[in-house]
Structure formats: structure tokens, C-alpha cells
Amino acid sequence: MTGVLEPLWRRVPTFLMARRNLARARTRTALAVLAIVIGVVAIASLGMFGVAFKEAQLETIGEIGSDLQVYASGEKDPAYLTDSDVQIIDRLAGDSEIVPLKQRQSRTVGEGSGGVTVYGVTDPESLYEVRRGSIPGNWRKGALIGQTFADRNDLEPGNKLELRRTVTRDGQPVEVTETYRVQAVLQDEGQAAPARPNDAVVLPVEQFDGEGYSQVIVRTDGATEANATAMAIRDEFNGREELINVFERADVSEQIDQAFAQINLFLIGIGAISLVVAGVSITNVMLMSVIERKQEIGVLRAVGYHRMDVLRIMLAEAALLGLTGAILGTAISFAVGSLINGALLGDPLAFSAEALRYAVVGFAFGVTASVVGGLYPAWKAAESEPVEALRG
Amino acid sequence: MSLVTGTDVVKEYETGGETVRALAGIDFEVERGEFVSIVGPSGSGKSTLLNILGLLDVPTRGTVLLDGEDVSTLTTAERTDRRSETIGFVFQSFFLVPTLTARENVEVPRLLAGEPKETTRRATELLERVGLGDRLDHYPDELSGGQKQRVAIARSLVNQPDLLLADEPTGNLDRDTGDVILDEFGQICEDDDVAVVTVTHDDYVADYADRVVELIDGSIVSGADAEHSRGDRRA
Questions:
Q1: How far off is chain B from A306, nearest CA to CA, in Å?
Q2: Distance between CA atoms of B96 and B117, rounded to whole angstroms?
Q3: Considering only CB atoms, which chain B residues are within 8 Å of A8?
Q4: E strands, chain A, in order
Q5: Which residues 309-328 of A have a C-beta within 8 angstroms of B?
Q6: Angle, CA A197 vertex, CA A191 and CA A200 arms, to 5°
Q7: Could you tell me the residue ranges of all domains in chain A?
Q8: What are φ and ψ of residue B102, in 5° steps?
């Protein structure tokens, strides 16, 4: 292949000489290239991994950013959202759907007894997807259970579910046990899902005694609308005192974004260290080469090559090492990246623009590290005195 | 006007806190088309003189005029330019670039000058002239010592120099091959009006020269008795 390209190489004599020099010590050149390859792969594929990891996590967390959670603060009296509060929220939410929720803690009965969150909802279809069984049209009793909860307690639609909780009667705490028939098992939801069903029991709101709702979820169409609604609700309820808290999912989504940015920075940092090492190895290889070729460089200087010419030839060598390493490294990074994408996202070719950016960053760092690593040896070669070099 | 004129040229080195005087104030002249042989034992200062003639080194005191120009006024970069314009070098150990073919080695001094076609044409012509027309694409390790030295001579001529400096050009060659090389130098002097200055401690090289300059302990001497006082310092 090089034979075909020879006329091309001859057009850039600096690179011709550089390439021939590199071809002289093949093993050494190959090892120097390998160091760059490792560095580039480290940066690019760690970056791609970070991106794919983030996307995979976001898939798990689910759609976030457009939901609001509204609940009473400690200063509100009564310390829950009343029916009229819910009506006001509904009005402020405009077209957006609102889901009032009740919530309490119970314990399961029998072997492996443990705590379980029980939600009371009026409109389960808007929140959940049914996996097995079905939600009766006129749903007034019977429980819906999350899939994780069902698996753990070995429950199927039609089974009986016993829950125990503590209530206060006549000022005395009393244990009561309630029995429900399981109507449906619900699909697990991402972490950001409101009233997440996975490990919970969902009951008709009628099964809750007492007034008011613990929270209202407002499902808007997007983060901007969510924010506007949140402001409207705050304005309406909160005067001098914070009676109502509105939790914007968009805040979380920003925090999550930041956390992932930091994780990626850390990964890239590790990659960058390996490229610094690669740069040092380029320095080492080229210093050896300069020492070996001392006389040759002396001859070049004697026959009229300027210091800058010698410097250019040496830097061209470093650049060739870097380019070769960066090209190979980027190619390998895409291979590694497609494996990562396949494993985390289920699609080997799911490269995002961000992932491609890391490939470019890796490539650029690879070439830069080489050239910077070559600076000192090149300078040393250029500075050597021809008289000294040619002696002996 | 002489090609090179040296007046009271002194060169001193500092080694280990001691000042070594390699050239002790010598006067010399080299004319165009002249074959000069500098002889003397090792340590007599002949390599130092050659380095000064080749603008690789500058004298500590005294003046050297190249084509009437005082070389001590030149910057490093200017001296490099003068080297490529007017001076060719031939070394005892040839110093060919092992990764380049014979022709590419000859091209080396002009490689960065652009006009690659002209350079290739000239390199080919020079190699044909020194009898290596059939070895153009051979690498140095595929050539004999004499052939390598002929490649080196072709390289030294590629920039059409006025002065060719040869440091022990036959030192690594057998006698017959050495004769061929020395004939080549004689030809160059006559055909191209190039001044050839060789450094040697081989007396027979001196036989080819128009003029012999004998150096001992940094001074020019004449007479046969110079041969007997061999120093052991390196120049």
C-alpha cells in the first residue's frame, strides 16, 4: 500500500522522512502507537459508556420533568389536601390531568411480614398499566398490587391479601387486619413514576377512612408547562406561610443530569491520565530514537537542514504516531461503543451526538498528546550540534 | 579572490577546566578547483580545521572569509544556508540515511527545497556519473563500502557546491576502492571547478592532491619530519 502512496509521500518530504524513520524500528513504533490507542480508547469508550449508561438510567427512571407533586407542608391546617384544595389545583392545572392520592403504611401478614406502602387512588387507569388480571369497571374494593410485590409474596389475581395496620381508637393504638382480593398485578414503573406501584398496594380511595389527600399529582405536557402550573399553585396557596409544597420533577432531572455529567467527567479524567502516560511513552520512544540517530541528524544539519527543519521532521514523526494511534483507537472505540450500546441500550448503533463528541475528543487528545510528547525530543534533536554529532 | 581565506585562526576548547588549543593561529587559503589534502597525526587539529572550513564550527580568534564574507558575522541560520549553498560533505563513515534509497540519500540536501522532479533528475544524473546508475533504488545496506561512499559523494554534489570537504574519505575502504574514490575527487575538481579539501593521515591520499598541508599540534608545518611526532589528543 505504501508503494502506491509513495508519490504522495514524496510531496511532503518531511513526512516521507518521518515515516521512513518510524518504519525503521517497527516494534518500538508499534508499541508507541499502542500506547496512544489505549489512551484514545480509554477516553472515547469511557465517554461513550458514560453516555450510554446515562441513557439507560434515564430509561429506567422514566419520563421525568413534566410531573408535579403537590402536598401539604407542616404549616398547613389540616395537614392534608382537602377536597376544595384539590378542586383549586384542578382549576389551576387547566387541561392537565390531576391525580389525588392517599397514602398509608401497612404490614403484610404471615411469613416474611414486612412494611408496604398503600396508595389510595380514584383513577388507576391513568397511572398504571395492568400486567395480569383487570381493574373492574366499578372499582370499590379489591387491591391492585405491583409486580415486584406480587413476585415477592407469590400473589396472583384472585388471591387473598391480608394487611395489618395500627389505628387509633378511643385514644388507644389498635391493630387491625384487613383482607382484600387481588384484582390485578400492575406493570413495574420507573423510579420517577408518581405513586410507583412496584412494591406497593393500590386500593380504591374509598378504602381509606379519614379526609383529604396526602398529595396531588399534576401531569402536564412538558417541563415548561409544569413550571408555570407549579408557580400558579404556589401563588394561590402560599402567602406569608408555605402551606403547600410543589415538587417539580424538572429539578430532579437537572440534578440527575448534573450527576451524570460528573460521572462522565470522572471517567474522562481516567482516560486523560492514560493519554498523558501515552504522551510520556512517545517522549521516551522519540528520545531513544534521537539518541540513536544523532549522527544522521548531524548529517542533516551539515548538509543545510535548519534547526526548524529537524524540529519539523521530529514533530512529523510524533504526529504520525499520534494520527495512527488516534485513527486505530477511534475505530476500536466505536467497536467497544457498539458493544456497550448493545449491552446497555439494546441497540449497537445507538450512538448519540454526545457519544460521537467523545470520539472526536479522544481523537484530538491522542494527536495532541503525541505532538506534545514529541516536543522535547524534537527540540533536543534540533539543538544538537552537528560537530558533536559527527565526531567519531 | 580565494574561495576560503583564513588568517591567524585559533580554536580553543574547554575540557575539564583545561583549555586545549586545537588550532594555534594558522593562515590558509583554498582556491577554486584545487585539491588540497590536510595531513597530520590524530590530534593535530585537522578535523577542527575541516569543521571550521565547513562552517560547522567557528574559530575562537582570527578571521575566516568564505567568498570574501567573514563567517564570524553570520548567524547559525545563515551559516546553515551557506553550508547548503556552497559546501558539500563526505564522511569517513558515509553517514547515509539507512531508511532511504541511494537516490533518496542523494536527494536529502534538496528534499525540503521543493521542485522534487528537478531534484530526482539531478540525483539520478549524479549517481550515474559515479557509476551507480544501476543501484538507484538500493538501500545503503545493499551497497558495498565503496558504493556507499560514492553515494555520499553524489549527495555532497547535489547542491552544486564550490567546496567539497572530505573527512578521511577512504578511511573505511580498501586501497583499490579508495583509488576509485580519489579519482572521483580529481574529476570533480577538474570538471566542476570545485575545491576539494580532504583530511587524512594516509600519505597516499596526499599523492592525489594538488597541494598538501601538514598540521602538527595545531600548527602548519612543512617537511617530512612532521610525520614522526604523533600526538594522541583528538582534534
A1: 6
A2: 21
A3: none
A4: 67-72, 97-108, 115-121, 130-133, 143-146, 160-169, 172-186, 200-204, 215-219, 244-248
A5: 309
A6: 115
A7: 2-61+255-390, 67-249
A8: -55, -45
- Cell numbers given for A354: 454526545
Residues A53-100 pLDDT 10s: 888 877 766 555 677 888 888 777 777 888 888 888 888 888 888 888
- Rounded to whole angstroms, the Cα distance separating B179 from A93 reads 106
The beta strands (E) that lie in chain B are given as 4-15, 18-30, 35-39, 61-66, 69-70, 87-90, 163-167, 195-200, 211-216, 219-221
- Does residue B56 belong to the interface with chain A, where contact is any CB pair within 8 Å? yes
Q: Do A390 and B56 touch (CB under 8 A)?
A: yes
For A53, A137, A267, A309, A358, the CA distances from A263, given in Å and listed in that order, are: 10, 47, 6, 44, 14
The DSSP secondary-structure symbol of B113 reads G
Residue in A with minimal Cα distance to B119:
A10
Shortest alpha-carbon distance between residue A376 and chain B (Å) = 21
Shortest distance between the Cα of A347 and any Cα of chain B, in A, equals 48
* Lookup: cell for B225: 619530519
Residue A319 pLDDT greater than 80, yes or no: yes
Instruction: Tell whether pTM > 0.80.
Output: no
Q: How many CB pairs under 8 A join A and B?
A: 66
CB contact under 8 A, B76 and A307: yes
Distance separating alpha carbons of residues A53 and B11, to the nearest angstrom:
71
A141: three-class secondary structure by DSSP: coil
Q: What does the pLDDT look like over B93-123, one tens digit per residue?
A: 889 988 889 999 999 998 888 788 899 999 9
- Domains with residue ranges and CATH for chain B: 4-66+79-224 (3.40.50.300)
Q: Cβ separation of A299 and B116 shorter than 8 Å? A: no
Torsion of CA A323, A326, A327, A328, to 10 degrees: 120
Averaged over A251-258, what is the pLDDT? 75
Question: B108: exposed, middle or buried (C-beta count within 10 Å: 0-12, 13-18, 19+)?
Answer: buried
Residues 6 or more apart whose Cβ sits within 8 Å of residue B10: B21, B23, B24, B25, B59, B60, B61, B62
Say if residue A1's pLDDT is above 70. no
